[in-house]
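## tool: complex_structure
## caller: assistant
## args:
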Amino acid sequence: MGIAERRQEEIEKIKKKIIEAASYILMKEGYEKLSIRKIADKIEYSPGIIYHYFKDKGEIIATVVENGYQKILKNIIDVPVDQENPEKSLIQGLKKYIQIMLENPGQFKAVLMNDIQEVQDKVNILEKGISKKRKSIEMLSQLIAFTIEKGKFRAVDEELTAQIIWTSTHGLIARLLLEKNISEEQKNRLIEHHFDILLHGLTK
Amino acid sequence: MGIAERRQEEIEKIKKKIIEAASYILMKEGYEKLSIRKIADKIEYSPGIIYHYFKDKGEIIATVVENGYQKILKNIIDVPVDQENPEKSLIQGLKKYIQIMLENPGQFKAVLMNDIQEVQDKVNILEKGISKKRKSIEMLSQLIAFTIEKGKFRAVDEELTAQIIWTSTHGLIARLLLEKNISEEQKNRLIEHHFDILLHGLTK
Amino acid sequence: MGIAERRQEEIEKIKKKIIEAASYILMKEGYEKLSIRKIADKIEYSPGIIYHYFKDKGEIIATVVENGYQKILKNIIDVPVDQENPEKSLIQGLKKYIQIMLENPGQFKAVLMNDIQEVQDKVNILEKGISKKRKSIEMLSQLIAFTIEKGKFRAVDEELTAQIIWTSTHGLIARLLLEKNISEEQKNRLIEHHFDILLHGLTK
Amino acid sequence: MGIAERRQEEIEKIKKKIIEAASYILMKEGYEKLSIRKIADKIEYSPGIIYHYFKDKGEIIATVVENGYQKILKNIIDVPVDQENPEKSLIQGLKKYIQIMLENPGQFKAVLMNDIQEVQDKVNILEKGISKKRKSIEMLSQLIAFTIEKGKFRAVDEELTAQIIWTSTHGLIARLLLEKNISEEQKNRLIEHHFDILLHGLTK
DNA sequence: GATGAATGAGACTTCATTCAT
DNA sequence: AATGAATGAAGTCTCATTCAT
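## result:
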């Protein structure tokens, strides 16, 4: 390994440290409390040095969000598809997604409750033809298409449906996160009912 | 009317002025730009006096949000119910809600993207039995119950259903607001499909 | 005197304090070293409060410059005009101007060596018709016109001449200020020669 | 050529690169935007290395200014002298100088508006006997002497006159540069009048 | 000879809140 | 009741310079 590569690795390590620190603050204290100074304090460096590794705060946030989001999405992608009852896999994947999000409120808020353009550019999903850009929507679309093929869903536009599943599920997660004092039991009832309506809504 | 009452009235009047100014700023400039000083400037009082009427900024925001939200909800409540096809009224009311929200992004973000506990305490809807506290959910529940009675919806738990309609619709609005560059046409497609799935999901 | 007036006076007093502190720093340390923090330190207030009295740093600098410049200009205006030999008064006034400038290098640099638009807007003199806006150029113009009348100067455009006198004299001052190690004697020779050429240049 | 010499050459080459980069930035972005890091970026070296070749930023600026200034002066020196009407050549050269300066505001500001001692040490011209050190003043002096010889100028001290021509012309340029919104026409009127007075001032 | 990471100081500005008047 | 001056902390960012490698 040459010197250049070693240096590159070193850079990546520090970048990672910065992102992790930012992630942590975002998670613990929320988006509004995230500051360059706090990140610097956390990694025990001077504030200035952060600008060696990132252009500005926006870039840090964008990276944090993207990283975190990708990590979360990976979890769902790994769900194997039930060839006979693909709709079951669909629900299962989404439930897992909800669960992970509930366990990572900071991440979710950073994605959903964030108005920064740079962040939104990495997580937008409503555009027509977005499947080509967003793996998550692409997978969802394919799974829906497959379920239609198998005769389990009625003939709906698969991308549009994927988008609505996504937005409605996000809506549920958002409120589950923002409202404290909801019992575990009630949470589960809501989640079950959410999917109950969705399934009915898509079944022939 | 005694002096005490007159004073009370005076207080209410100024509180209202403060809230209106805050509302205006929230609407025009967004949540992040709302500051005590800007409110004071707008009502042409001194910053200090605001603390006579409100404990702190959080209380102001909470009040603003509640007021604004109530105003919005009033719009939907006024939709008359179609006695034969109550589900049509349901959809119509919700579409109107979406439309108003899209026209008032500040308000929506203040409600949905806001982490302040005091705010959330006034707009939470997931709790079991919330219908008794939130008129919006109560009405929605009643409308759903009525639609079930009329044989247009299958037998679902009406409150739970109202909650899911609410969360999923919020999810759609949130993304519609956050994502720029969505064409009007695509927006409409998404909204239509959202209700298409909902309706199918609730119909027998 | 009412409360409002007293308060107004108080404000003016602090504004003056700020301007004086800024002036002092400008004079002692130069334009580049002038900072809000330094001003705050000097007047023993917090930095923030300065923004109560001035919109931003630019406004402070503009005020400092204008104030200082007006003060300097006042000195020249007071020179009485020799009715028979007005050109002598002209030279005398300009020499006084040079002398004051040399005694206030900070002020001069703030005016002449400064690129801030707000500052330049207050001291620009090259525009055609500027006499109406700048008292200094107006007076100079009038004096030149009077000298022409008296038959001591040839017929030149008085404003244009005033402008050239101004720019060339500024040029001399600038270099006298920037170059250290010029002997008093040499300074005087230069100044005398400057006016010798000017006088010759304008005499019939 | 020995190793030492080759190294010396190498050093000069890099120094030149640094100065050229600094020059370019000065010209394009102005004095205030000139930073070590920008220079380093431009020459694609590290910031640290610059301190191998120059003691500090001041030294770089001083060198830049001197180089740039020399380059500009070369332009004037090349003007051929009209043997019969040498004063015409004088004016012509100075006009060219003004023109070049107006086209290179960065350079001019770096020379005229700059307080760094190291810079001033390289462009000072007021000292008695400076002709021996500054080629520009020397040439100007000689040209003036020659014009006197030819009977076109009255008998003035040539160095002193050269200095006053220099300072007054600088004064004009300075204001022409600092004041925006001066029409091309007005600029020309001012320049013409400047030389008109100068010529009259020196003619018998 | 060269790197480039790191520092530490400093820049301007905004803010919620307090408190003497 | 009302003022508004004042604070202190915090925000992002840029810079000249140093120094271990």
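## assistant note: The mean pLDDT of chain B is 89. Chains B and D do not touch (no CB pair under 8 Å). Handing back to user.
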